[in-house]
UniProtKB/TrEMBL annotation:
This is AI-2E family transporter. The keyword Transmembrane applies. It is a multi-pass membrane protein. It comes from Streptomyces echinoruber. GO terms for cellular component: plasma membrane. InterPro entries: AI-2E-like.
């Protein structure tokens, strides 16, 4: 049986496709930092977009550029207020720590105080004395990591400014880009895409605001408990607990362990109170705060949440852990809509601000 030769055009097309794929992967690898900034900016834009729409709709003669500017200025004010709320006790606690640090170190060396007693019981002082030269050489080599830290801080500041500008432009010009893209499809499909997009936006907005609110509540309650029990540097510990609580599943436990250890170092009663508080609070957060705050935004079962977080952490680290749940919620919305349309039952997702009731209908081309 004689085989026909493969056309040269097919061979060239296959080679071109492989090269294009390779170049695309290289582009993604080389620009991964910019892509991460873009994704973060997109989430912030989605979170602030409803506020801009509401202001533009409710205030007469308010142009979108003005509404966007006002909303972003309000966001800056809120962020600045939160930073000031945390930085003020942070500076005070840092000053106290700097003033007490020489005495703490001296007591620890002599085996006095709560830290000294702990080091003496765990034989840590003996280990330090026996490995003094290794520790000194390790401390000498910390100059390079410090320089890397300064560079990382500068990159973080540049990234924050870039994210802010990108989010502002996305909110300002996003509707025009979306309208232009949807104009390429028929009206029924455009309405379907808008409904699904609105549901995805509600998922992102609800998760970000809800998770931030829960973390603030956790930080404030932790600060009150540590302050009442007399644990030193309660502000620093509470800030760490609040930031750790932003990480799904493991964040609350990590913050609780660190704060409880600090409380036990201070005194045994303070440690017991801290452990009891975190056990009770995590039950309240898991069974009351999260269902109430996130019940109408992200609806995912625990197995899906765990798998999403594990995969996202492997792909994008801490950033992936923070964005895993809203991304999984968006995927769930899209998949549910596709499944509903396969059965001829379009997913009824009313758009934000649309006061008209949704009328179920089959999209054009769904029954093809």
């Amino acid at each position: 049986m004689q085989t026909r030769p493969v056309p040269v055009r097919t061979i060239l097309a296959a080679i071109g496709l492989v090269l294009a794929t390779y170049l695309l992967l290289q582009l993604v690898v080389q620009t991964r930092r910019v892509l991460v900034w873009t994704v973060i900016a997109l989430f912030f834009a989605v979170a602030l977009h409803p506020a801009v729409d509401a202001l533009e709709r409710r205030v007469k003669h308010c142009r979108r550029s003005v509404a966007t500017l006002l909303v972003f200025l309000a966001a800056i004010v809120v962020i600045g207020a939160l930073v000031a709320l945390f930085v003020t006790p942070l500076v005070q606690e840092g000053t106290r720590l700097a003033g007490r640090l020489p005495g703490i170190i001296q007591d620890a060396r002599a085996g006095r105080g709560p830290i000294g007693d702990l080091l003496e019981r765990t034989h840590a002082l003996r280990y330090v004395r026996q490995h003094r030269e290794q520790i000194r050489s390790f401390a000498t080599g910390l100059g390079t990591p410090a320089l890397a830290f300064v560079r990382s801080a500068a990159t973080t500041v540049a990234g924050a400014v870039t994210i802010f500008v990108l989010a502002y432009l996305m909110v300002l010009e996003g509707p025009k880009a979306v309208d232009g893209a949807l104009a390429l499809v028929d009206e029924a499909r455009a309405a379907r895409i808008r409904r699904v997009g609105a549901a995805c936006a509600r998922t992102v907005t609800g998760y970000l605001t809800g998770n931030l609110l829960i973390s603030v509540i956790c930080g404030v309650l932790t600060y009150i408990v540590l302050l009442v029990t007399g644990v030193p540097f309660a502000g620093l510990l509470a800030l760490f607990v609040a930031l750790a609580d932003l990480i799904p599943l493991v964040g609350a436990t990590l913050g609780a362990v660190v704060a409880s250890v600090a409380a036990f170092i201070h005194s045994l009663p303070a440690g017991i109170v801290a452990v009891v508080f975190f056990i009770v609070y995590q039950q309240v957060e898991n069974h009351l705060l999260q269902p109430v705050i996130l019940s109408r935004t992200v609806k995912l079962n625990p197995l899906t949440v765990l798998l999403a977080i594990l995969i996202a952490v492997e792909l994008a680290g801490i950033l992936g852990a923070l964005l895993a749940i809203p991304v999984a919620g968006m995927i769930q919305v899209v998949l549910r809509d596709i499944w509903e349309h396969r059965d001829g039952r379009p997913l009824k997702l009313p758009m934000r601000g649309d006061s008209r009731p949704e009328i179920p209908h089959r999209a054009a081309g769904d029954g093809e």
